[in-house]
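Late entry, evening session. Most of the bench is empty. Finally got around to the prediction I had been postponing all week. Sequence below, unchanged from the version circulated by S.P.
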Amino acid sequence: MNTSEKAYIGCPVQYARLFIAGKWQMGILWNLQNQPLRFSEIKNLLPGISDKTLMQELDFFVHEKVVERKTYRFPSPRVEYKLSGKGRSLIPVISTIVEWGYCYLQDQKADKKMSLTPSSVIESIENRMAEIE
């Protein structure tokens, strides 16, 4: 264990960052919030993610008990991923980050990366913001 890793032992901020700081982590969790999904379904919802990266992230989440992996053998073999209770507890945190980003994104010039946010996410945020006002 190096010196920088020792500094983070017991730090709740660094622990939380393990689950939301990666490029794809919030997107994976966000897409699993409403229903279990198969690997290919998650991949289709995250344009640009490689199979290797998605598998690594899912394996990490399963190992950390944030996501549950269930294998079905019948009627046809398949694997589904769904949020565990621990994973569901991250959704309000992610929602707050998404809402904050949406509010302040309005001041920025939109580019291609910004347009990758699903319209359902934007609609949900706009509805919540209207309730607050």
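Two things to note before I forget:
The chain has a mean pLDDT of 84.
The radius of gyration is 17 Å.
Will write this up properly tomorrow.
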